[in-house]
Write a structure and sequence with these properties.
The chain has 153 residues and is of the alpha+beta class. The chain has helices at 3-16, 23-34, 41-48, 57-70, 114-122, 138-152; strands at 73-76, 84-87, 93-97, 103-106, 132-135. The strands form two sheets. A three-stranded mixed β-sheet has the order 4-3-5, with no helix packed on it. Strands 1-2 form a two-stranded antiparallel ribbon. It is flat and about 65 Å long.
Length: 153
């Protein structure tokens, strides 16, 4: 599905929920869909500040809260100071670099029924779930290898 289609589909859902579509709201949603870098609210604000010079950080936060409530966006808090936000068009998981903090989406077939399996095994009524896999991204692996090689000489 193209990002333009996701934006249009999301805007339609907001309209059906009688939520007004402001230029800033549209811009924030569009940014989230087009950039899969799991940005913080401040990163979204910085990216859109030139396009919307009168927009405040509070506007970004308020819209992110709205999108989270509507179900478009997941707020990801990994224990650091800033939450990161992820547009959710399909259930997916995350790999997280322990060195630089980079987050990548992971789509893994076979985990679609994890909620149902968990209910069957535990009796819990599963409302949501999150899987995080921690490691070192390829770029940080290269940097570490280069650093180790430099120490040898």
């Amino acid at each position: 599905m193209t990002s333009n289609h996701l934006v249009a589909q999301s805007i339609d859902k907001l309209k059906r929920a009688h939520i007004r579509i402001t230029p800033q709201r549209y811009g924030i949603l569009e940014y989230l869909i087009e950039n899969d870098n799991h940005p913080t609210a401040d990163e979204i604000y910085q990216a859109l500040a030139e396009r919307f010079p009168n927009m405040s950080v509070a506007t970004v936060y308020n819209n992110l809260r709205l999108f989270t409530k509507v179900g478009f966006v997941d707020e990801m808090n990994y224990g650091d100071a800033s939450s990161r936000f992820d547009f959710t068009s399909a259930q997916h998981y995350h790999t997280i670099c322990e060195v630089c903090g980079r987050i990548e989406d992971l789509y893994y077939p076979g985990l679609e029924d994890i909620g149902e399996v968990t209910t069957n095994l535990t009796g819990f009524k599963i409302r949501r779930h999150r899987l995080e896999i921690y490691g070192i991204c390829p770029e940080c692996q290269v940097k570490q290898e280069q650093s180790e090689n430099a120490k040898q000489y």
